[in-house]
DNA sequence: TTATCCCGCCAGATC
DNA sequence: GATCTGGCGGGATAA
């Protein structure tokens, strides 16, 4: 069993060389996912069993350490619906197909929260004030014990992971750095220690999401700092789907659009979602400021739109797009445009899987181009 | 030097 | 009381 799971070569070739990468949460998550996926949908995953099997993959780790990490992983996977808890030690594997539904739900929830706060708080400082009073109101009438439980729940990795997903889907931003996400999720709390803790947790979440191929880490074009971008989700996100990226833009807001266009019904659920809404609002304002300085930046949305309207897809294009009959001259011009875009925006994926996938697309594109050129040549000869 | 994140302590939850 | 669960932050490693 362990033979088929991915382990870093260095560890097996020379167990005396310790590498942090061998123990990464992302790697452990990948192995865990392989383990679960093989069982098939609706199967039950026992944590003991999983910890034992994954423990075998790592020369350096004790099973208890792996087990602790598995708790982190299952919490995060639960946040996007891949797993659901059945009983103590027992989780149900829902499969990757459950992700889109979970993400849709989170998106709706996030937009709902956003509209709620927007309708009652007219600027950022008011939003913060609303948030504080809401939290206070909710605190009143509760026992110290239940407040403590709420506080614990609010800080759980699962809630944090869900809020992280909402950040991508309910705000205008495409690229989110972890410290920005942390400060957004913290709201008006400016404690450096809390910020550090939140960022640490976000690193864990991001690693698992990268393993799931839900997000990818790239370098910010502005400052070269690492930022994360939502890739896509489909039936099997681990197979990756750059073509499906931004597939659900219809419900996303465009840059600079107002957020207050949804029903002004006050909605209260829990303090974490209110904090989330305020955070999103804050993130939007920050983004608007940022945009004033960088109007020349081409958004991913624009690229996408251009891709669907102006370009003819090859055999690897999205199946949903109609094949249009465009003249050879236009076609060549468009190919040229594609090449310009590709050279200009050639992505440097940190995510190995995304990188490989991109390489595959480039390879496919090149072979198709050669094929098309030959075809054109033949037509000219006739 | 800064970013990243492994590790395991320990407290609360559950059995 | 035992075991499970998971928040948390120190500090090591990678970049």
From TrEMBL:
<keyword id="KW-0539">Nucleus</keyword>
<keyword id="KW-0131">Cell cycle</keyword>
<keyword id="KW-0805">Transcription regulation</keyword>
<feature type="domain" description="E2F/DP family winged-helix DNA-binding">
    <location>
        <begin position="20"/>
        <end position="95"/>
    </location>
</feature>
<dbReference type="InterPro" id="IPR036388">
    <property type="entry name" value="WH-like_DNA-bd_sf"/>
</dbReference>
<dbReference type="InterPro" id="IPR036390">
    <property type="entry name" value="WH_DNA-bd_sf"/>
</dbReference>
<keyword id="KW-0804">Transcription</keyword>
<comment type="similarity">
    <text>Belongs to the E2F/DP family.</text>
</comment>
<dbReference type="Pfam" id="PF02319">
    <property type="entry name" value="WHD_E2F_TDP"/>
</dbReference>
<dbReference type="GO" id="GO:0090575">
    <property type="term" value="C:RNA polymerase II transcription regulator complex"/>
</dbReference>
<keyword id="KW-0238">DNA-binding</keyword>
<dbReference type="GO" id="GO:0000981">
    <property type="term" value="F:DNA-binding transcription factor activity, RNA polymerase II-specific"/>
</dbReference>
<protein>
    <recommendedName>
        <fullName>E2F/DP family winged-helix DNA-binding domain-containing protein</fullName>
    </recommendedName>
</protein>
<dbReference type="InterPro" id="IPR003316">
    <property type="entry name" value="E2F_WHTH_DNA-bd_dom"/>
</dbReference>
<feature type="domain" description="E2F/DP family winged-helix DNA-binding">
    <location>
        <begin position="152"/>
        <end position="232"/>
    </location>
</feature>
<dbReference type="GO" id="GO:0000978">
    <property type="term" value="F:RNA polymerase II cis-regulatory region sequence-specific DNA binding"/>
</dbReference>
<dbReference type="InterPro" id="IPR015633">
    <property type="entry name" value="E2F"/>
</dbReference>
